[in-house]
Amino acid sequence: MYQNKIELSPQEILEKEFKIDTRGYRLKEVDQYLDIIIKDYEKFYTIINDLEKEKADLLGEIMRLKQELRTLKTNAEIVKNSSSDMPEVTNVDLLRRLSNLEKMVYGKDE
Hints:
The chain is mainly alpha-helical. It is 74% helix and 0% strand. It has 3 helices and no strands. The protein is rod-shaped.
């Protein structure tokens, strides 16, 4: 994505030929400086590619989490609507049921 906005590639910098003038720059200094620029460009490309991959992964994770949230909201609505049709179960009801189960399992009549 960002590589389309970068004008020069490391290879283009490496292959650039300068015209030699009688009072031109020292070729060795220019070559050394261009080598530094090429290394930086290669690092930029690597960083950009890594960030683009990370961005794509994060966007995928966001989409997955949004879908999961929608599913959970739907399930919560279903539970909410279905529980309103049923009478509310209290702790007393649970204790009463537990007591009846104990009587059936252990055969004790209190």
